Structure formats: structure tokens, C-alpha cells
Protein 1
Amino acid sequence: MPTPSSEAQPQTSKLHTSSGCSTSLASCETGSWSAADLDSIEHHLRMWEKRGPKTWLANTNASKALLHVWLTMQGKTSSTCVKIGNAFLMYQIGLQWWADRPILAEELLFSLDDQPIDMQRVTAFMEETARLHGCAGVAIGTSLVTHDATYSRYLGRYGYATEAHVNYKEVT
């Protein structure tokens, strides 16, 4: 899988160069993920399972999510996991019913060490990856943030606009 040549390229695999560039985990071994990284991923998924900022997170199954992340790290799903600085990013590239070209869709994005992530670097990576795959655009969600409007305004600094809202109702 081709990777961006820009400075925003993630550090995720055994294929590091002297400049710190690498390819995505989808085509690499998972050995480059430290035990601390894996512990942080598990911690975040279990935290959201117990007390997520959104109602839908009450239905989060951390074990299932961890399995999906693990399988993704092994290249066994259509998603890709990368580490960009202290950011964990999982994304998919695929066709949507509304687009005639693929879309890069962020699935999961959070800080591995609870420090702010370099969003400019993360969005630059996603945009360059999208260009390399002929995507029409990049979609970033707000499912894990407490304040959708605030995060959307923050993403607006990087050229992103709110295009849709997801409404959710618990059913029993």
C-alpha cells in the first residue's frame, strides 16, 4: 500500500526510515506497537464502554472493539491502524452510496498518552493518503467527543465542514 511522502507520515511499523517515516500497519508486522500503546488502546476502549460521552457508547463492547483493532493491526480487516505521533488513528477507504469516488473515513482517533494530538499532522496524513488512493474526500466524525459543535469548529480550522448529523435513539 503506498504511503504519503509528507512529514505527516505515521510511525507504525518496522519499516522506519531515518526521517521517521513508515508504512501503515495494514501491510506491516504489529511488533512496532509498544506494550504501552496496546495498553492505552485497551484502556480507552474499556473507558468508553463504561462511561462514554455519548449515549450510544453505553452499547460499546470493548472486547469486540479490541478484537477488531487487533485484527486490523494484522491486516485482516478493511480498516487500517496507524500511529501518528501520539495519535492512534483507525480509518477505512471505500465507496459510499453518495460518492462516485472512494472516501477516507476516520473510524477511531484518540491520544495514546492523554496529551493533545497534533491535529494538523493527523489531517495532513489523512488528506495525503486520500489523494494517493484517489479519494474524493476525508470524513472525520465526532462520535467520541463530548461537544460536537466545539470539535466541529476545531476541525473547521483545517478546512472541514459539518455535512451531516447522526441521531441515535436507544431501543430495548
Protein 2
Amino acid sequence: MALPVGVQYLLLGAGIAGLLYAMFGKRVKKRAAIGAVSAIVGVFGLVMLLPGWGVNLGDFFTAAPAEEGDQGGVASGVAIPIKTLNVLVEEKNSGSFSAADGTLKIYRSGTNPSDANANPLDSVTVTNGNGTSTSGVIKTNTKYRVVLDGSTTYYDVDLGEIEFVGSNYDKDQGQYLLELVDSNAAIIVPTISDAFDETTAANFNGQTTANLSGTSGNVVGNMGTISADGTWYWNETAGTTAYIEITPAFTGANAEVKEAVLCFDWDDSNPPEGNEFSDMTASLRTGTNYQLPSDILDYFNKEACIPLVGAKAGDSGTYRISMTITAANFDTADDFTIKVDDLGKVDGKDVLLGTKATKDTITFGGSYT
């Protein structure tokens, strides 16, 4: 441990004085003895001073600063421009490091990337899992908000607030390798399959015929002109109970689905009032159990979404939606849809405000007489 600076200087002075006295003083025994003692004290002082040089005697000795790009600079908290920022992105489920595409966006700390006016400090184009920036804008030991924009192929990856420090920094080359792996790997957006085949008569109350021609859509009880993705109508002569069978399903190699939902969405121009049904239930028929509640009337009345719990690519589950209709309240202006979508709601947006999977829509056009 180094001695206090004041003591160091006293010892240094005494040592120098003692050495000079011993060397050049008059040769008498008394003075020679004093000189010898002074010399010993001086040598001791110099030895004690050695560990402190460059630290306490800062006026005479200074520690050499860390060179730019030095790991020492990173460790001491110095913000050093990164000459080359390399990005490596893993594709989840396939484990490939040569497949994912996207754009890594780096924002100032505290920026909300979901703000439409947010502008990144630097962007790195990722192709086949790799990307590089040589802008030199990003620095070590500085916090940034970082997000991978997956466009429409991958979900966005939000890394949150991070600093570019640690063993991934090459102090000699001034390079940093940012790895998006494991929980930060890019997830492929799935395809949402057609949940309802309007051309299959059995999907409407288990019917086997379609014998009411010339209508503008499909009619429960007596179905009209059948068309794929056409509008579903209720024929008042068919009674006050009806059901349809729908099959939410997701496909895509190595894909996953984030926050899959089944949603009721009312028409903007001719919305229901919320009193058209006295009862609405869901029951699993075959396939994947998405854990839909049996009573779903409140979801319709509140124009809400039902989570498809645990949904993933490859899943397919058929549910029967049974309805008890209040005829006096259900008319041709009560238009709504049932939609299967991702990201928690109809047209749900990811971190950077982009929608991902293309939703599937089943259209209801009120009553028909």
C-alpha cells in the first residue's frame, strides 16, 4: 500500500539529503554515522515510494491512457466508437444462422420504438442471418434501445435497453458482434388458414343442401348461392337456433404464432346493438383444444377477442359456435365478423407498428327472409 503523498515527499527529501551528506560531508565519525543513518532512511524511503509511483506522485508520473478500441477503455466506462458492428441472427426452431432477414434498428436510450416519429441512430440490414455497419455511430459503454424489424416474414425482436460491452468486443479491431440467439432468435410468422369453408353446406347447421338460389350470400336453413369467403346470413324461417363450425389453424415450417386470438369485430356502418343473441357457446369438436370458454356471449357483446391458448404452427382445432337468436332484434343491418388473428387483437401491431400474420375473416350479414 502506498504511503500518503506528504510522507512520501519527506522520505524522498530525507533520502536524497542523507545520500548527499554521506557522499560529500566531512569525514568525521559523528557526521559519517549521521550520513549512514540518513542513507539507510533514504533507501527505505525510495523503496516505500516505488509502489506508489504513477499513482500518488501524479505530478511526476502518469498512467498511460487506454488506446482507442482497447478493452481497458470499455472496462473503465469509456465510450469508444465501434468501427465495425456485426450482427448475427438465429432463426428460431430451425437453428439456422444463415436464413433470417430483417433490419436491426438502434435508437437513443429512452426512445419508444413504437412511436411513429422515432428515428434510429443506426440501421443494420440483415440478410441470411448476417449484417454489418461501419458507420461508427454506435459506441461502447452507452445504452441504446435496440429492435430487430422482422418485416412481414418474422416477428420483431425487442432487445430492450442494452450496452455494447463485454467479450464480444474486439479491442484490437474495434469490432463488436451482436448475437440474437435463443430467446432473442427471430420467429417466423405463420400462415393463418381459412377457418371457415363457406362452400361446405355441413358447416351451417349440418345441412346437406343449398336450395335457396339467387340470394347475395349463404343463408342458414336454406343456403343461397355458395361462394368461398361469402357472407353468412340467418334465414328467419329456419328458427331461432343456429350453429356454425369453424377451424382456427396455423401453418408454416419452423413458424410460431404470437398471441393468437378469435375476435368478434362489428361492422362500422351497420353494427349490431349487442342484443341480437340470448346465448352463444363454443364447444370443441375435433383437434387442438385452444381452451375457449364455453360461454362466449359476453365476448360478442363487448366486441372482444378470445385467446387461442397455446396455439402454434401445425395446430388445427374445430369448434362449434352455437347461437340462440333474438329474432326481434336481429335484422339486415346487424353486420359483424369473426376473425382469427395474431398479436392479441384484430390487426394487432408488433413493436415497430407492423401487422404480421394475415387474419382470416368470417362475415355475417344479419338476417334474411
Protein 3
Amino acid sequence: MHPPILEARADVGLLVLLVIVVLTILIPFAMATTAKLEKAWREVSANLALAKEKGLVLTGRCQQSDVVVRGLGGKHSSTVIELTDGLPTDVEFWREGMWSLTDPEIGDPAFDRSVRVRGDCVDVLVACDAPLRGALRAAAAEGWTLREGVLKGTFSGILTDHLEAKIRDGLGLAQQLREVDEARAAHLGRRVHDDPSPGVRHGALRALASGRYGRPALDAALPRGLDDVDDDNRFYAAELAEHVPTFLALAKEGHAPALRALIARPHAHEALRPVLAGWLTQIPLERPATAVALADALAVVPVDGAEDALVGMLASYEEVPLAAARALAAVGSIHAVPALAPLRDRVLGGELKSAARDAILAIQARAAGAEVGALALASASAGGLALTPTAETETETGT
């Protein structure tokens, strides 16, 4: 036989021998691995009273949840746990970053940063207490999601040692979510009372105010909302309760929305007067929103010394001088004109220039007993005004 043919046959023989050796090693190893997986999953099946089906599949009912667990082999093996029955269907959550979506916030900064939320109603998540929100946050980071009423955990590899623990973790979360969902109103009321996050307290009160849970649930939570340490939460509760004393207390602290709420309620103006008087000697110009709200209030609520305070505000910055000029149009006297005139005479002034001019016209009209529009600027000097020709004619004829 030709030597090359002999060498080729020898090479083939060696290759076959190597394949046989490898298979002899791998097959027992694969069988041992499969046996180990099967044993671990049978133990979990027995411990949780789940049925062990063909392959790596567990099904059954445990702790009020329908359970399906699958071990998926292949290049990217994984273990998938699905829990259903009685879980919220109007909200979804998953790990932040899995999809790029704009999601509603529930008011807990740590939760909002790390968990994506979507749905028609996120009240159930707002109703969860801080420990449960922490557990949901950790679960989402591990791969748990809630979608269409299915709590699903997806984990890399075929789990053995940690399989039962993962299933129990999911069952615990499902049970807690179910309990919160079944009594949302009560849980929301508790969050208004005791949640450490101001945002969650606000969200809980807002959920109760939506009308989904009835007026009694809201009325029960409002007293705590009115005592909230967060000013914005107190203001929101006061709006819901139409509670003027809370508005007044916030106004004393310079809370701009509360001042505006009182301006919009004429029946509260008399009670607002002493609050405004207390601010006249210390207008908070470093807080423009408050200063503007005070100017607007002084325009509609008569207070001794208001004009001097408003004139002082004309020298401020941002939107404060504009608000002061508009207020002086309503309550200013001839004494305010010298302070308004430089603003009126600016080369570039925009809204402030127009507001100062209108204020001067309104002031002079009141002083002369004429209607606004019957006066014209007579000179560039501060406050220089004269009757228009039409007004003069009407005065001479007595019409």
C-alpha cells in the first residue's frame, strides 16, 4: 500500500480516537449536569408543592399566585419565573434603562431614578410603603418586571441553588402588591400620614383627590395634609379643603401660591390685610416670586403704607418692578409719579416702560378726576400731564 494512503488512514484513526475520548468525557459530564439540574428542580417542586413537568418546567399554585418556572437552555440559557392572579393590571414597572420612555414619577427619588413606570394609574405604587418600594426597586434591578398583571423574573443561566429563593422572593412581592392593590384607599391614606418622602405624601393625597376612592377617604386624609411639614403639601391640602387659615399661615411665611390663593378669594381679604402689613417693612426682594405676589396682593387689598413699599420695589430686579408698577396703577398716588417717570422715559423699556406710563396716566386721572385716556403727556418732565383737546371741549361745553 502506498505510504501516503497509510498516513491518511492513520490520521483519520487518530481523529476518531480523539472524538471517542472527548465524547467519553463530555457525555457523562452532561448527564451528571442534567441529573443535578433535575434533582435540584425536583427538590424545589417538592418544597413549594409545584408540579415538575417534562424538562425543566415547574407549574402550580403557591401563596395565592399561579406559578410557572422554565429553564431555557441554548447559547444564552436563562431561568424565567412568572407569577399571576390578582396582581395590578393598570400599572407596569421594570428596571430603569431597559427602554427609553418618559414615565410618571411616584415621588420617591430613589425609586424614580432606578425604576421605569407606565400605566393608566400608578396609585398602587404610591400606596406602597417605603420598605416595599425598596424591595420593588431591588427586584427591578435583578430583572423582575410587572406587565399586564404578570410579575416576571428573568435570570441568566439555569438556576439550581438559588432557584427556590428567587421564587419565594417573587411570591412575597406578589402577595404584598396584591394586598396593597386590594385596599389602595387605606394604604394611600397611610402614605399621606407617615411616608418619609414629601413627594409620595403629595402623590397619595393627589390620588385620593382624583375621585377614584370616594370623598370620605380624602376627608380622612386632609387633616394630616394640612399639618404636613412640607409647605407645598400643606398648600395642596388647603386647596382641597378650602382652608383659609392654612393659606394665611403659609402667606406669613412668604409662600407665593398661598398669597395668590388668598387674592383669588375676596372673602379672605380682610384676614389677609394684617399679613400684608407685616411684610411691608421687609419685602423679600431676594425671593422674586414672593415679592411679585405681595405686589399683586397690595393692588387689591388696601393696606396703610402699601404705596411706599411698592415704590421701593421699583428699584428691584427681574419681574418685581413690573409687578410694582402695575400695582401702583391701581393704588398709587401722585407721590409715586417721580419714581415711575424714569422708568417711563427709558429708551428701551419694554413691558416695564409701558406699565410705568400706564401707572402715571391712571394716577393722574384719579388725581384730576378724569377718566383714563382723557389725559396726555404735556412734557417730558416727571408727571407732566394735560387734558386732551377732546376733554377740554367737553369741559367747556359741560358735556
Protein 4
Amino acid sequence: MKNRDTALIICTPVAKNGLSSGASLRTQFLLEMLEEHNLEVKILSTAELDKVKNEKFRVILITSYANAFRGNWAKKRSEFLWFDPYDSWTAHRYSMVPHTFWRNFWGFLWDFFWTAVFPKCDLITFISAKDAKKHRFFSNKGKTLILPIRFTLPSIKSHSKSSLVFMGDGTYLPNVLCLPKLNQIAEQLKMQIKVIGRGYDHQISRFSNLEFMGYVNSSDIFQKNDIHISPSDVGSGIKTKTALPLALGIKVVTSRISANGLKNCENMKVAESIDDYCKAIRDFSLSDNDYENKDTQDIYKVNNLPEVKKILENWLAERPNSPEEVESK
């Protein structure tokens, strides 16, 4: 095997699709962090790893618990192994069982086995403290830190009319499960809610109070006077649909699950019942407050980004300088 001063990110196929999904934004953030440390980075899905089967890397970063089965493969080919499960697979699987039992039952067993046998590594990162707490057993596998996403904020426009907005990919079941609640909110308010994202073709005829916009460029999604709604009651992690408008100073009404990992901000209201959502939306609509953009790192309850960077800096500063030194270790 040849050793090069490179890093490899192993991600899911969704993280490479070029859309602004949580997985792709996470991967882009991790890519930028590694590049900041002067590493040449490759990004491959698990199905593409045969392309580098004869290579070794300074750093291999495995993203998503779905790729945990590649842990031992990566351990043999890296000097520094970093596992980024992102969120809690147990919280996600448990919340989805009532909706797709057998798929998540077998998925639960798969995830349990491969995370249990995951090798010891140099660094483990979760997106929130709550997700990390669900996996305390990882504490004996490596140093665990909290690493939320650092966003590059898109442009924001202003217009006189306020719209209600929900954004999310329609191929992701937790987003589809939000549609009945959104439809009830829109019906009670006697307003339309814009649903931004692909994959809702089979849902359009079912919800008369929702306006399905399809794919929209990120530069056109965010309007200063809009109110974003994030009513998901399933899943785990930090929701991009909540965090991104929050950082842009846009008003957000969200469920408790969708507010996970985020500080209480003046432009965010947490709701539970349909009446709660409607009241919060009405209150925001009557408010003349103009909320300022925030540094994306300031919206999180816990953020260990400086510590993660320091670990990388210290390790890279101490690493062997040649392949010969590596082979002699």
C-alpha cells in the first residue's frame, strides 16, 4: 500500500447528491475542516471504496452510523480514524418504528451490531449532546465531542408579503409525516403553506392546503418576512430546516424534537399541538421585530469545534513525516 498525505471521507450516497440536505451539508462542512488542515480530501460512498482499496490515508472520516460496517476496513488503512455518526441511530429508529416497523426493526439490529463492533478510534463526533448521550457506550471507543454543522449562510431577500414555509426532501419519510400536521395548521389559519423540496409528486392531491413548490434554489428559499415551520415529531440530530432559518434571523415555529441542540432564540417558538402552532404563527405575524443574522456557531447549546480543530492540529503536528516512518511504527 502507498501512503499519501490525504484524507478520505466515507459518506452515504445522499451526502454526494449535491442538494442542500443535512447529510450533504454535514459532509461539506467536514470536507472544509480537513482542507483547512492542508489535507487533500477524497469523498467516496461505501460502494466506491474499491477505487482506493490499495491506498492508505493520514485520516479516514466515516460519516453516518449507516457506514459503521466500514470501521475495520478504515482502521487498517488510516493513521487517524474519525467516526462521525452525526446523530443517534437509536433515537431515529425508535421514533420510526410505528411508521415502518420491519424496515426499522432490521435496521436497528444492523446498526446495533456494527456500532458495537466498531474499532477503537481517535475521535468520535455527534451533532448534539442529546445524540451523544444516547450512545454513552461509545466512550470506551475514543474521545467523544459535540460538533454541530457550520453553515455558509445563503443570501436572504426581503418582500412585503409573509409566507409560511416548510422545506425538506419528499423522499425522506420524516418529512412526509409532517404533511398532515402542516395541512391542519394551514386549514385552521386559512392560509397556504409552501412546501419546498423534491419528491412530493404522490402527495400533491392529498393536501389541499399545501402549495408544493418542488426544488427551489437556496438563493430563493429564504425571505426575511417568512415564517418557517418545522413540526417533525420523529428522527434525531439537529434539523437543518430549523437551524438554517434561525441563523438567518427568520422566524421559526418548531417541535421540541426539531429544536434539539439549539439555544432558545427570540426568533424561535416551540409548539406541540395544532393550536400551539397556530398561536405562535399568529404572534409572529403580529410582531414587527426584525431579527438579526447570527453566527452559525452561536445558535447551538453545545459546540466543541475548537477542541476538534485542536485535536487535528496537534495530531498533524506530531505525525510522522514520511511513509518510511509510518511503516516502521
